[in-house]
Amino acid sequence: MELLLGGAAGAFALAALAGWWWRRRTTDRRSRRYPEPEQFPLGLGEGAEGDLPSAAPAPTPVADPSNAVPAIEPVATADARAVLDVVLTVKRAGTNVLSAAIDYVIVVRNVGESAATEIRLDVRLLSAGQQQDAAIAALFSAPIAQPLAAPFALPPGGAVEQSGMAMHPKQTLEVMQAAGRVLFVPVLTVNLTYDWVGGSGQTARSYVIGIDRGATAKLQPFRLDAPPRMYDTVAALPYPIAETR
């Protein structure tokens, strides 16, 4: 995947970032949206759209979805298993007074043939940097000790929507300097573990978040040295680190 970043008329070079900034390039639609680092247009707007309430860095817990899902008596046939699929929609992204923030909606669907039980969801907001791959891999390999909601269940074909706001303190964001501006790129991870009769599974995905300036423009990073602002026009592109088992 090619990444976002660049400046006007190549006024600065970001070659030092290339080693850790989107090393895995793909030839799908992401390559059309993300230019070479040297070509990324910097032009983030000034101003604020109102501060969000300050919050702890952990994502905001969502309501227990088990209230909306009927009790399930798991029934498995030979070779049947549960398989969870996840779809992420980012509603807003940017900064508040103390944190970077991503306002998201996640739809979890069981596309398998057996009921999924003990589904545990974890959502984290990181920032792209030298250790991003290792940090994502560590999250996906560790058990989910504190899920965002109480563990729930989904029958085959069942789906549930989770919404919340993931936050990360500004002080610990990985940032970069470009044309006199302090920038950061959010990386959101979504991690699901679950059971079915006869086994257990995991669906984990990571996404890069940027400001969407239209179909022909490049996604842009967020400024950290400007007044707090949440953007409504944002997009999430899949990052290669994922887990499916």
Describe the structure.
The protein is 6% helix and 39% strand. It is mainly beta. The strands form three sheets. The chain has a five-stranded antiparallel sheet with strand order 4-3-8-9-12, covered by helices on one side. It has a four-stranded antiparallel sheet with strand order 5-2-1-11, with no helix packed on it. The relative contact order is 0.25. This is DUF11 domain-containing protein. Residues 32-64 are annotated as: Disordered.
Q: What is the total number of structural domains?
A: 1
Contiguous helical run count:
2
Taken from the alpha-carbon principal axes, the silhouette is elongated
Strand order of the largest sheet: 4-3-8-9-12
Region (Disordered): 32-64
Protein name: DUF11 domain-containing protein
Organism: Sphingomonas echinoides
Identify the notable features of this structure and list them briefly.
disordered N terminus; single chain; 4-stranded antiparallel beta sheet; 245 residues; 5-stranded antiparallel beta sheet; elongated; 6% helix; mainly beta
Which SSEs are present, and which pair or pack?
Elements: H1 29-33, E1 84-95, E2 99-110, E3 116-127, H2 132-141, E4 152-154, E5 159-169, E6 176-178, E7 181-184, E8 186-196, E9 199-211, E10 222-223, E11 230-231, E12 234-244
Antiparallel strand pairs: 1-2, 1-11, 2-5, 3-4, 3-8, 6-7, 7-10, 8-9, 9-12
